[in-house]
Protein: Molecular chaperone HtpG
Organism: Dyadobacter sandarakinus
Amino acid sequence: MESVIQEKGNLSIHTENIFPIIKKFLYSDHEIFLRELVSNAVDASQKIKKLASYGEFNGELGELKVTVGLDKEAKTITISDRGIGMTADEIKKYINQIAFSGATEFVEKYKDKGEDGKGDKGIIGHFGLGFYSAYMVAEDVEIITRSYKEGAEAVRWKCDGSTEFELGPAEREDRGSDIILHIAPDSEEFLDEHRLRGILEKYGKFLPIEIEFEEKIINNPSPIWTKNPSELSDEDYLGFYKELYPFSEDPLFWIHLNVDYPFNLTGVLYFPKLRNDFQGQREKIQLYSRQVFITDEVKDIVPDFLQLLHGVIDSPDIPLNVSRSYLQADGNVKKINGYITRKVADKLLEIFRNDREGFEKKFDDIGLFVKYGIISDEKFYDKAKDFCLLKNTEGKYFTFNEYREQVKDNQTDKNETQIWLYTTDLKKQDAFVQSAKKRSYDVLELGTVIDSHFINALEQKLEKVSIKRVDADTLDKLIEKDVALESILSADDQEKVKKVFEEVGENKTAHIVVEAMPVDELPVVITFPEFMRRMTDMQASSGQRSMFGEMPLMYTVSLNANHPLIGRISTTESEDEQKALAKQVYDLALLSQGLLSGKDLTQFIQRTVATL
């Protein structure tokens, strides 16, 4: 048996295997090649600026724009820059040694230079694989380059995607590089000027060096998030919003993000006017890394409820995978997530405290967003509880604590629990709202798509508060007091009236009861249990089927024993007159709850007209 000798060595990677991997797997979308090559050209331009600022380049910087050229006949795409260029030795080091990042070495060398000590600011690449993304679309790639270094000669490098390359002298008068892609037959879609312009505008719209395509500059090198807020006006922020979302309404307000510890993060987040169908307004935040567009899928960076915001976040500290296409789990991601939540909450609280009236005017538009945050994020709730507003049917706004004070004297039940009444539809539930107002009860408006979940969250967070829809029961049961009304009807009369309504109702899903209510209360009140209503609303807002399936909802028919009409039914000797009167007031109650339709509704209208 052969003995095993202990030894140490280096793993060898066979480069002939790298090109199929790059072409098929490294980048999820082949259009990324243009982002990578243009980003490299921007890097080279940024580097020459830095060297000049450090006193290591004393020549004329001149115009530093990056140019993208298209030649349909030659089937080539050329990316040209006037950056630092490369010598023959640098090509061998940075191009022939795959995955050795020149940007990484540059950053390490100059990391302590500059006034802010951040030598890496503005240098994009960190992986060294960006150049080879060219082979996703090209069968041959050429580099013609000349280094900024004094006495440097121009060099030409060429490779057809195999492990063999050519390196030799070339003609180039100025410093910088031309990357020439000879497009492969299966990628000729990229020889279309509209396609190229679209890619450039998507990924390079805010690159820090001017990008020229077809003799036009396609980018804004100095977007507002790179500037100091003190330099900017409201018009600047609104103009930038229109640049991002040309067909959108103006935002309500915005937050300028700017932090350099414990991570670097800049950006501007806008609060749009939210609609009830807010799912369509998500994924509008764009993530950049040093002004290079990365993605608009920011669910790991931005908490779920904040994805309703619009705008831009830019951070070089966001961990990306090797293709820069996906976020990777990292401690910084959680820190950024928490910072954005805190910053948004602080901004809303500041606006509320500085301009309560203006905040109230905006709250109908941003309330959906604030409530979503309260439901889903405990840290946001800790601050939002001081500025989240409740609106009553009179159009007045209250914080949670203010509303406690508003209703504590009249809407505290016998168990010392405050009962907050609400309506989801002021018109449909008007009769119930008016009944509550007769008793000086206050009623909130909570009818947005998210309010059923919001109500649940509030009940869990607020002590000794129960929130009930105004038509979930009779008022005496919604807010139970120690004082009970006496019934005018005797027990026999109550039973008699109940049987009449059971006969005219013919509905096994209705539970009929006789209750002592105020004389001026409705003769018949139809209610659904709060639990059943709320669960149905929550499931509807989530797009789920009701947990009660196709079963008709059980409802309660409460007969007001003290109302004259109910008293008249109990004293009338004619059974036909009893039933006719009961049928009319019963159907009127059903109509108020939207439970009367078809033939029954037609007959109700006919009977009503006949009595006029």
